[in-house]
Amino acid sequence: MTDQTGTPSSPEPPKLRRRLVTAAPAAAPKVKFVSPAAEGVEVVKPRFLTPELQAKLAQEQEEAARRAAEQAEADRIAAEKAAAEQEAARIAAEKEAARIAAEQEAARIKAEQEAAEAARIAAEKEAARVAAEEERARLAAELEKKEAASAPQPEPSVDAQIQDALAKVAEAQKALAEAQAAALAQAAGVAPAAVQTPEPSVPEPAPAGGAPKLKVFKTAAAPAAAEKSPVAAPESAVPKLKVLKSPVGAAPASSVAPAAVPQPVVAEGVSPAAGAPPAGDGGIQPPAGTESARDMAASVDKSKSLLRGVIYGVCALVVIAAGVGIYAWSTNSKKEKVEGENARLNALVVEGGKLGRSRLFDSKNLSRVPDVKVVPDAEDAALLLANVRGVKGNRENWPGAAHLVSIMAQMDDNIARQVVEDMKKNVGRYSKEKYSMMVTLLAKSSSPAMRDMLKDLYASISESKNKKIQDKQAVVLKYMRFAMKLDDLDDVMKILQKKDASPDLISSAFRTARYLIDEAPPAKRKALSSKLLQYQKDMPEENIKMLYKLLARTGDPKVLDMMEKSYKEDTKKALAIITAWGDWNTDDAVPYLFKAWKDESLHERVRSQAHDSILRVLSVDRDRDDNATLKLFDPLIADAKTSERRQFLVSAFKRLSNRPYVIRLLGRIKQTAEDQRNAVEPKFQAAEEALFKAEDKFKANPGDAAAKADYEAKEKIYNELSSQKTGEDKVIAAVDKALEKVRKTPVPTRKAASAEDRDDDDSSVIKTI
What we know:
Blueprint: H1 51-150, H2 160-188, H3 223-228, H4 291-357, H5 378-389, H6 398-411, H7 413-425, H8 432-442, H9 448-461, H10 467-480, H11 489-496, H12 503-519, H13 522-533, H14 544-554, H15 558-567, H16 571-581, H17 590-598, H18 604-618, H19 626-639, H20 643-653, H21 660-700, H22 705-744, H23 755-759, H24 762-765
Helix pairs in contact: 1-4, 4-5, 4-6, 5-6, 5-7, 6-7, 6-8, 7-9, 8-10, 9-10, 10-12, 11-12, 12-14, 13-14, 14-16, 15-16, 16-18, 17-18, 19-21, 20-21, 20-22, 21-22
Keywords: Membrane, Transmembrane, Transmembrane helix
């Protein structure tokens, strides 16, 4: 049955319930019954929705959200695929460009080698040509020398000095012959007078036409003899002559004593020339200072000078060609070495990239990537470290190099030492990101020596005041804490006292101190509170809250009273203390948190933090007593007056395991939500009926202001009750999901980590891959 404007309604049976139809027929105009106050309010859902329709709408919204998520995931996968294809195309283009560049470089080097070979061949041809010319010149000189020696000299060329010398030689030969004859006669026992020796006839001057011709050789003085002679003969000295034959009419030699055979005698004061021809050739040597000798010596010197210049030029060409060849060979060798290193580095980086994509961070699971063969090698490690520093190779590929060199270091302690030494010497060349990844990957090693190496690395940079180096020190300290002992707590706390330390180093020192406290035995842990309080005196104000959190890890109940007295003095300090109580390792801080939560004299922010800290303590999975836990946290559940607050409590239980007190607390929240929904249900039904009546009355009299105001008031009450009923339904559904999750979560064997400890997981550090 439909209500229309201006149409009387038909009588309805008394037992039938009237239903409000919001839509009007198409023929009649639709009347909008909305108050002016509600016109600016955004209505998310229709005013009158049954629970079935609401569930259907919620299901449709979830389906639409699911489809949107699936579409977003498909778009993301398509984008990643396109990015991968673009990256593959870029890599292929880079490889093609590198290949073309390598071919061009090889062609250029080959051209240089061919040019050097051509220069060498040309130099050899020039040297052969010069040697041939030199040989021809030498042969020509020797031929000219022989011709000059064989040519006869005319008699007028013999001057008066030569004639006087010849006469003196004849006289000397005559006297020598007489002395020889006397000696022979005396030896034979014959008187000298009885010996008859024919006198040699002295040659007389003959006419020009009948004078005997003497054979004279024209030769230049030997340079070697001239250099050996310490003193040169003066020009006025008698020419050095060597008589090769006895004069005409000399006495014949006796055959009795071969020693008495007359020998050629030289004139007194005359020595034979160094370059004279041997006896038997006939003739005499001309003086060394003649014009022909000087001309020949000058010609020979000129030829030698020319030959020496040619030889020097050829030598220079050979040296230049050799230098060019050596330079080309050296350049080619260097380029071949660089190209070989780059090719090797590229191959290694590709292998390291496979390890990174497989999320392989240690050497124990190399079988997960069967096509990757890791062989520790010092030279390969040096190349990879140079790539990580950005010295060699593509600077964008350093993560792959870091993965591979870290795997090598985990497999071989010598490689590990090489890596650590490189990080010590080049600490400034490693960025914070690279240093963090290298230390993180090295810390995965199971080798006991690695911890000592990390300690050595930490010691090498621990005294630096540079904030960038301190950030790297923080990374090393983060992984060193696993090898530290409780005695090292003092050194860590001194870092928290520094006023010039970097934030990363302070955070790492706090986490290290917290780890040492948590790992200490319970008896020693509580005794650490008094020791920690000693560092409060010189500690910067911003680090005090970290000290409070460390005190909370000790669990010493005596510290709670001290902290409660001090947090009322300052709001900032109170906020730090209330936050630290949320990290208390026992439930002893919960009563103090409840007291602060209920204390209206505190700042609203401090009270809100107290409530959050209660939830943090409650969300830590501990082996608690069921009844004591229910009694302890029952005020928190009882104070949750709204469905939003109860749903917030449920979210704190999702991280807990299957323990009895967790199940009972969730059951308590669900029971409270069901009680509230049951209480709201009759009110909701009554408000719905009252709204129908008010709507009918308003539709019957649209101009009645009282009817309009009554309708708006009934509508507001209806919406509030509907919201409460829907909120409780959400709490019940959330509790059911939480119970399902908790029942599937096994009880941990050790104390669960806090939220901040979970943030310290190694997987969160390796975000640069």
